[in-house]
Design brief:
Blueprint (H helix, E strand, L loop, with lengths): L1 H16 L9 E6 L5 E8 L5 E5 L5 E3 L2 E3 L15 E8 L5 E8 L13 E8 L2 H9 L5 E5 L4 E5 L5
Antiparallel strand pairs: 1-2, 2-8, 3-4, 3-9, 5-8, 6-7, 9-10
Amino acid sequence: MMKRVFAVLILAVAATACAPAAPPPPRVAAWLGETSGLVFMQVIATDTLQDARLTAPDGRRILAQRISQPASASGSETWVGRPSVGIGGSAGSSGGFGTGIGLSFPLGGGSSAQPAARSTQVEFALDPALLRDYRNRPEAWQLELNFGSRVDSGPAPKLR
């Protein structure tokens, strides 16, 4: 009876260890183009950004006019989280010798198994009145980031 309880407990722990972790929230920085009057934002997130929009305090929604996706990095393959095989040997002071073969199967993804963060540049074209308002009170604006599988929204970032 005790062996069955222990086996069920081990299976339950293994099943919860395999559950995917929620992605970290995106980080966003904003600045003004020197001569263009555009608001640029740099979004760092693990997921690919599909579109972005700003919502003004009066409710007007401004869709990003351009989203520059990074080039995908080929050759960034990682071996973290994959099954592996190891061979080893040891010798003792009394003349004994031992060999062994080991197999490992990961039960859960560690923090290094998370996808790498990617940087995406977003451009918003605001008319002069909206641009002045955003410059004076960015905390009154809302930023919505659409990653396809989820949408993150919150206060717009302050200009750097």
